[in-house]
Amino acid sequence: MPYSLVIKDLLFSWSKQSDFVLKIPNWQVKTGEKVFLYGRSGEGKSTLLNLISGIENRYSGDIRVLGQDMTTLNQRQKDTFRANNIGIIFQQFNLLPYLTAGQNILLAQRFRSVDKTPHSGQLASICERLELSNNLLNRKAIELSVGQQQRVAVARALYTSPALIIADEPTSALDSQTRNQFIQLLLDCANTSTVVFVSHDMSLAPHFNQQLALADLQQPKGDVDAA
User: Fold this and answer.
1) CB 164 within 8 A of CB 5
2) pLDDT tens-digit profile of 78-106?
3) What's the CATH number where 165 sits?
4) pTM
């Protein structure tokens, strides 16, 4: 599969009364590519990730993820497709506070197809690379530090060996040194996956082999000279 993501004539608006419009004429991400997508706060970065992952459905146009036309799936099918194929790292990590770290990592497994259950040793391998000890995995998420919660969120995203990983500002709460360490760890663990990483922090861009501004994706080719 040459492309993990293909978007054509995407148009999204919260409502007819809203001033916010997300319009992307054409965007393609090659399989295995590591993309850094940047833009200002409120510009629509998180909305775009929600559209790609099937969390947000109100749009016109064509979104194909790993060859799958997302418009042909109902919500339950989208949930299953996402659990089988996409690893998501949220800005606030979205861990359930009173589940253990280990239980949070395994949570997406509920939506996966039976025939795609990961190998039993896969979790242990990922946790070892992320320095998540058994003691830590047995602690409730609410008891973990921000850095530990972050590593749990990464383990959850990587556990099922997803073909596509999308990350929404996951380093916003970290200092610069920890941010760079986190990015390098994520990319090392996701070496065979396509990665779309969204942030407003341009200092992280050099870690990725492609850097794009969301504003440029929304710029129709015919309007460049008129701008």
Assistant:
1) yes
2) 988 998 899 998 877 889 999 999 999 88
3) 3.40.50.300
4) 0.85
